[in-house]
Amino acid sequence: MTGLAWHTGPHMEPEVVLPDGRHTEAAEFFEQVARAFCSSATSLLSDRKMAEPEVRIVAASNIMEVAAAEGERLGLQPDRRLGVERVGGVVGGKCLISDDRRRASIIVADYAATASDAPSRLIAAALLGHEVGHLIYGLIRGAEIGIFPNVWKPWEVAGMIAVLAAEEYRVDVLGQVLAERTLLPTDDSGAPVSLADISGSGYRSGLKGALDEISPKLEGTILAYRLHRLSLDELWNAMARTSEGIALYLAHTEAHTKQAALAIEGVAHRGAHLLEPFWRPLFAYLRQAPMVPPATEWSADRKRLIEIGRAGYMEAWRRLGVAARPQGEGFFLSVFDPE
Fold it and tell me: Are residues 25 and 106 in the same domain?
């Protein structure tokens, strides 16, 4: 890839905080991209007759610390997921929106403001575009249907995982669109470059390692419970955390895959088989559904995602040797030989 051009409109003015207040050429480029993306966000929100919030964009090395401070500034509860480690990688950014949707903070890794060559800048722009995508998606979702409530019963968690994975997939696609339409990247011949061609290989090469979190690692956790080395609470917490983490990784991978076949279909791995009841219907649905549902379709969209998640993960967990059923106000887990 040799070139990045510009295509921008009138700018909404975010507050942009650079690492250590630096104003290098790379940092200035990052600031220009941030303002251009916010301009696009303004246009998309205007189409829905929604006002844009006050936006603060921070490039920082200590993402979670800054996110915690920004969350407190916005009056939000602490993040339920601590630390930067996630299945298949680490956190590259956060988007926080106040409950009244009037203020928002976006925090991205500081390398986004230091990228100097064209490919690195495009990837950094996609990272920022992803978080701006969360801003757009979150504001519209909040206005139309609200956030997903806190849940803890297995069948409810299964539905929530599909809703979260759908958002990651959609804002990844939206971030790519923002980056490509704003920067207009080209190769040596002047032909347009797809961001998925640059970033997708990294996700696909890490797919087997991510699936290892299901098999053998989660299978080993279930065995440890059967051998009385873990409590039931420890087992369920591990299952929920790992199931969500791999679902989000798959969402990122498929969002950066443009060929007709899903990336996971080409992976010979037991984890792919165990999770197939979840990923196959989820991505079949997401590939044909709107990137951002129309106002009248949010309820039906969420209902369908919950159905996919509930049916898919309950079956995946059964294949792993765990089944859940209601018991009183809680639930009962039965553990047996895996498939």
Answer: yes
Helices (H), 62-206: 63-73, 118-144, 154-183, 195-205
Give the residue carrying structure tokens 């803890």: 152
138, two tokens: 């979150």
| 3-state secondary structure string across 41-96 | HHHHHHHCCCCCCEEEEEEECCHHHHHHHHHHHCCCCCCCCCCCEECCEECCEEEE
Label residue 185 exposed, middle or buried (CB < 10 Å: 0-12, 13-18, 19+). buried
Please give the Cα distance from 135 to 96 (Å, whole number). 8
Same domain, 42 and 92: yes
Place of tokens 């009385």: 228
- pLDDT band of residue 1 (cuts 50, 70, 90) is very low
Residues 171-177 have a mean pLDDT of 93
Give residue 54's pLDDT: 95
Report the run of H or E that residue 324 belongs to, with start and end: strand 322-327
Tell me the per-residue pLDDT of 230-260, one tens digit each, with 9 for 90 and over. 999 999 999 999 999 999 999 999 999 988 8
In a domain, 44, yes or no: yes
**Same domain as 26, residue 74:** yes
Q: Answer with the one of 91, 115, 144 that is the final residue of a domain.
A: 144
107 and 183: one domain?
Answer: no
Last residue of a domain, one of 144, 177, 194: 144
Q: How many residues does the chain have?
A: 339
306 located within any domain: yes
Give, for 106, the enclosing helix (H) or strand (E): strand 103-109
CB atoms within 10 A of CB 204: 17
Between 335 and 47, residue with greater pLDDT? 335
Residue 124 and residue 26: Cα distance in Å, rounded? 11
Q: How many domains does the chain have?
A: 2
- Judge if pTM exceeds 0.70: yes
Which range marks the domain in which residue 276 is found? 154-335
Residues 25 and 170 grouped into a single domain = no
**Both 206 and 162 in a single domain?**
yes
